[in-house]
Amino acid sequence: MLQHTSPAVQDYLKALHMLEWEGDLPAQGRTVSTQSLAQRLDVSAASATNMLKKLDGLGLVEHVPYKGASLTDDGRKIALEVVRHHRLLETYLAEVIGLPWDEVHAEAEILEHVLSEKLEDRISTLLGDPAADPHGHPIPAKDGSMPRFSSDRLWDIPDGRRTTVERVADEDPAALRYLAEAGIRPGAEIDVLRRGPVDGPLFVRVPGGGDPNGETALSRELAASVWVQGGRDG
């Protein structure tokens, strides 16, 4: 089905999927506003509306005028396939090619549209059928099922707790470089120390990573872009 859709259509469907699932507990089937979609894709609201009407006609989304759209089952299948391509490519570029984790997202954005199913299967087998990409984001299985993942953000973990990084947002290369220098990667343990008033910053320590005796300051926005598992007493 993927080979019969244009890169533009794939981008819209993937963006709708990401906005459905973004951040907290998945809200599959939730209506995504046209404005949110336009901002995500950096297009005008009018352009987004026109594309949503087209996708509705193709049976890939359900478009509600002046409200937004949600993916149909067929639209979600395509979106998940694009996400699978993207995250497998990120993993391949990082683990096999050796590209830094702050560069793989942009490259995968280009290659995800041209990856054949045969090459997708070869890459997945070569990598050992990974469940997550270098940033910790779950890779949809071949059948479209998604591994379980946490909705807890680092910012929401109480002071004095230790937690484990599950995944980090991958769109901002500068943020990824900063997190890497601090040792904040999937699997890393983090001690939440304290936070400044109102919007932070949040001060954390990463045992065994970065400067184990020092502290790292994270803005609220950056701390909210890190998803974690658990929050036990440190």
Verbal overview:
The chain has 234 residues and is an alpha+beta fold. It folds into two domains: 148 residues, Winged helix-like DNA-binding domain superfamily/Winged helix DNA-binding domain (Arc Repressor Mutant, subunit A, Orthogonal Bundle); 82 residues, Roll (SH3 type barrels). The protein has eight helices and eight strands; from the N terminus they run αααββαααββαβββαβ. The strands form two sheets. Strands 3-8-4-5-6-7 form a six-stranded antiparallel β-sheet. Strand 1 and strand 2 form a beta hairpin. Helix 1 packs across helix 2, helix 1 packs across helix 4 and helix 2 packs across helix 3. The longest helix has 25 residues. The chain is globular, with a radius of gyration of 19 Å. The termini are far apart. The model has no long low-confidence stretch (mean pLDDT 90).
Secondary structure: elements and pairs:
Elements: H1 7-21, H2 34-41, H3 45-57, E1 61-64, E2 68-71, H4 73-97, H5 104-111, H6 117-126, E3 152-153, E4 161-168, H7 173-181, E5 189-195, E6 202-205, E7 216-218, H8 220-223, E8 226-233
Helix pairs in contact: 1-2, 1-4, 2-3, 4-5
Described by strand count, sense and barrel closure, the largest sheet is: 6 strands, antiparallel
Report mean pLDDT, rounded to a whole number. 90
| Portion in strands | 15-25%
- By DSSP (H or I, 4+ residues per run), the number of helices equals 8
Helix content: 25-40%
Structural class: alpha+beta
Assembly level: single chain
Parts with pLDDT < 50 across at least 5 consecutive residues? none
